[in-house]
Fold each of these.
Amino acid sequence: MKSVGRNVPRKEGIAKVTGTAKYVDDLSFPGMLHGRTVRSTIPCGDITSIRLGFPTSGFTIADFHDVPGKNFIALIEEDQPCLAEREVRHVAEPILLLAHPDKEKLLQADVEIKYRPGAAVFDPAVSPRTFKEITVEKGDVNRGFAAADEVVEGEYRTGHQEQLYIEPMGVIAVPENGGVTLYGSLQCPYYVHRALKVLLGLPDQKVRVIQTETGGGFGGKEEYPSIIAGHACLLALKSGRPVKIVYDRAEDMLATTKRHPSVVRHRTGVARDGRLTAMEIDVLLDGGAYVTLSPVVLSRGVIHATGPYRCEDIRIHGRVVMTNTPPNGAFRGFGAPQTQFAAEVHMERIAEALGMDPVRLRDVNAVRAGDTTATGQVLGPDTSARKVLAEAVRRTDYHRKRRAFRGTDRGIGLALFFHGSGFTGGGEVKLASKAALELTETGARILVASTEIGQGTRTMHAQIVADALGIPYQNVEVSEVDTGRVPDSGPTVASRTCMVVGKILERCAGEIREKLGKMSPREYLRKFGPLIVTKEYAGPDGLYWDDETYRGDAYGAYGWGCDVVEVERDPDTYQIRPLRVTAVQEIGKAIHPILAAGQIEGGTAQGIGYALLEEVSMRDGAMANAQMTNYVAPTTLDTPSIDVVILENPYQHGPFGAKGVGEMPIDGPAPAIVNAIRHLGADIRAIPATPERIQESRSISNFEIRISK
Amino acid sequence: MRFSLNGKTVDVPAHPLRRLLDVLREDCGLTGTKEGCGEGECGACTVLLDGEPINSCLVPFAQVRGVKVLTIEGLKGTHPLQKAFVLEGGAQCGICTPGMILAAAALGSRPSRKQIRTGLAGNLCRCTGYTAIYRAVEKAARR
């Protein structure tokens, strides 16, 4: 009867395996036009002229003059225009929109734009503009260095990463009832709703956003859909007809957001027995041309920069700056994969400097319940850093393999990491998310704005509701995500959909159950009429956060993970092949074990790509390899078998004890792989660890890289 | 152009140089075949031509004359792979799933793990890390 903890069939599973699930490009409307975006070809400058080199009859053409409201994408800052007016700040910046019924004619339309070029900045280290700066201080870092026996320093770099959802970005805007209805592949319907209201100058009820089945997001469809939606709506309102815009792969890769590149410097004081006495960390993120979500990416990155370690004297300084490249934005992990890559490779180097077993070093320093984090948060009883470490080491026979592989072309490495669930700091309080539950004849219907983007939102939410109501899983329906019907449950991001929104639903179910008493839903409906219970986020008592000082409870709960990776190096090509990955992750409670494992397996595979394969080549501010042929994401042959171990240490304020699971899996693979490469003797400080990087890397003393015979 | 589509002989009057993918989706109304990249890399548009998996974004319509074309709609929801993909978590976002299932269907009976990895190497999945897909293919083969 109970469904939580069981592998119930996925709600939309049949539709997906039979090809009947409708993605945005599968939809068509009578009289529909196709839309195209004309974009800048220079990274920085002013537009001086625009010439239309085609017969314009039959075309709808829109530029910034056609924006009825305010010409910016409403998000954090008001800096990013929907359509450039004069200044362009990056290649592929939208300037002009075209629509036509015939796709071929649309693509052939020639537009010539002339510019007065400006001086572009590509190196974040010399950027003249800082979007956000954060300092986190705990104790006195000078005191900590004075107490140190050794000081270890290092600089670590990560590159862009493309989300590479397999369904490209796409929307259809339909003019309706004096407003517009927007269908799209997107994660956050209410982000789009708000952006469209501001852009189009329309009231709430004149803008309706409906999520179509979404072919992957990974953060890539968090903020960018507001832009493509804005473009389609401008064309739809001007033409009075439905307008579809679906990017092809090259446009999607060239124009949309990527993971922020990072440069992280560590200076760490450590006692001879391995205790960390001081951590000084400097984080620099490349934000690209506009602010988008950069301040919050930096925030999460900075808070996770220490890794899951105890230290009384810490100073972290973080900056995210502008460069003349397409804006970077949300991608699974959201700053934490970058900073924890640095932290975990640095820990390996500290172990070397002390001549200490890297597992022992981590175990000595791993946070325990009652310890405080860099922001001063006292960790709860669901703190599992040592538990995941011990389980990963035991399960993989790490120590024996570490000895056995020495001097061979095999290496083994590990990484210990953590990930905060939900919005950072006071974010959840500000969001004040709502969820609703509607009584039906046989059970209940879920009304949330949380989107299904592959992770299993509908299924997992229905399981929580089913058990909280005490009814079978099949009797819980999930409403289509339509802002005309569902309340604002906040964005589907930040590992919050289960822990935060799931908890609100559990409370809705609790109230319905109380109201029902001994009545069946049918009896209740006959007697009292329709029943919808809506509830708002209510955080656990005692959570405290100060956004000015960056002190307090950064997250309601943390997940804990330890990855162990075995790799093999090709002695001739230096190519690194991961042979086996073990991912031990403590997530509170797996509501649906197969879905939870699916998040871990998928996130781990993306982490393997991040570590070894995925390299965005930027040339003059534009992605030079904007195609799947030479931006290489892991195929079956690049992905080793992934052994997933789920541990459960319940979080008392999560639904059935659940914490977040979506993002954490991508934090661990890159440092674990680089530490395995380190075990082979190559000193890698930047990813992706391509054969070229490995060949150019310095060998670590006491280990010689064997040159091929 | 006459060819066999999901077991039925059809005659579709489309330009011979259009992509098979577009003819299937636009002229035949079979939107289960997906476009992920349009460059033959991702495999989301995989269909079977005479039992062989191909990227329908790279095949001109002219090439299907007299050929048996099988799309996801042709499996009618009854193929063991379809059920196994649901139960084992082989489908997450679902956009690669129709192509993946057709590529898996072409692997023959009881493929080894190595044959599965090689046979599906042309089908990208960004969600699953492939592990659940292997489980699904192996489970379907045991039936």
Note: The CA atoms of residues 411 and 677 of chain A lie 6 Å apart.
Amino acid sequence: MIQFIQNLIDAVALGSIYALVALGVGLLFGILRLINFAHGDYITIGAYALIVPSADVTARLLIGDWPWPVLIPTICLIVVIAALLTDAAVFRPLRRATSPTLMIASFAVSYIIQNGVLMAYGSRPKSVDLWSGANSQVFIGDLRVPMLQLITLAVTLVLMIAVTLFLRRTSYGIQMRAAAEDFRMAQYLGVRGNVVIGIAFALSGILAGVVSLLYTTQSGSLSHVMGVPLALFAFVAVVVGGMGSLVGAVVGGFVIGIIVTMLQAYLPPDLRAFRDAFAFAFVILVLLVRPAGLVPSRSTFERV
Amino acid sequence: MTTLLEVDRISVRYGNLVALRDVSLTVAEGEVVCVIGPNGAGKSTTLAAVAGGVTPYSGDIRLAGQSILGRQPEQIARLGLSLVPEGRHVFGTLTVEENLKIGGFVQGDRSSARADLDRMFTLFPRLAERRNMPAGRLSGGEQQMLVVARAVMTRPRLLLVDEPSLGLAPRIVDQIYEMLLDLRRQANLTLLINEQSSNRILKHADRIYVLRGARIQLEGTAAELQDGEAIRSAYFGFEDGATAKAEIPA
């Protein structure tokens, strides 16, 4: 039983990382119909921004050495700027393009970022020591819980509440929700399209920045493709949750995290290498039963 | 009366399909102008072109003397022109109140937007009762009320309404027209309305244009066109002297 609870905590912690990534992806998809494959690379940018740019094997911390109240906003700001630059340089000229075109453009952005990081920092993974104290264990009764997992859970909760409050209570949040539902109609009412899209990119950048810190603290290493698996699972989460629904993205993120962790823990050892295949098979099953995802978006209560 | 809107020989193409050919119309400050015509005549395209939703490949559109051709819809909205597109377009997952607030943000002045919101709720008690309900759950007539009220929240000088009667029961349509004319008196609105049918329009409009096959076929004041015969032949495209008994849909 203790073992199961322990696994469950691992699962929820991993799930909350996926949920944060999926939320960032979902925000942009909702408003721009852009499936942004470069989202994972925003995370990579945030992680590499911690160290001194060089091709050396051992990484020297730069921003990573700063006290956390400065470090966190700085990393988030860097990622936000990167996200806004990709919008200005690539996605804005493609505003009238179709969804598939936008998606392919995001692949291009993704490769450009990965290769840019490759050129500046070299191809070998680097180990970094960010807040290693957070990896210590906390005892709760008989449970041993890594401190970082508790932090991850708390941070996820806080960010989700913050995003929800932003979308419900602020004027830009309401405009974003309107634009996500009917972009042209929102423009007819004077909602500035590029402003709300910019805010969506910025929010998704903040989320990516926070994930880069959580993920780097946990893994202790950097690689130019580190964001790819995160983004991949986040897309799966978005699809499972229901394209266009933010609640769905978050639910999907937790579901994927829990499935992956539980498969890792309970699959027979011989089959563990195929964990992801089992996870994706499950996704196919979900989509067969609920093609619109677990939390189908919008127009569910449209009336004629 | 000063001219508020001038549409000057615009032509619009969707791919190879010509949707509008040299369409001109004017709306003077304070007028109620109606464009009528059969389905597919180009009525919606005309309004969308004025509001910036489609860009004509020739011609010009001027609002209060200033060309607005090629501007983004959001910029045109901020110049005091608001479009209520056909098919209602409420933000279904937003509440009634949030829908109205979207219209108010363009004002930039919170207290006047607040006052307008209260005014809309006084004007439309049905919307006030449902203010926290997702707009997608309203009935068709209530949704039409909401989108008109929402457009008025932007404090437009010129309100474009695309087929307000589409898909609504005649009794509800009467209410919608009453509401539009009320708003016109109260908010100093100028109205440009699209309709498929002419009977209501003849009662309320100052001037009428008949659009068919991407062109303006007829233009005149409501008084001139009162007997409906000229409208009928322009609407259906009868040659002079034809005496068919076709009826414009009610």
Note: Strands of chain B lie at 3-14, 17-28, 32-36, 58-63, 66-67, 81-84, 158-162, 190-195, 207-212, 215-221.
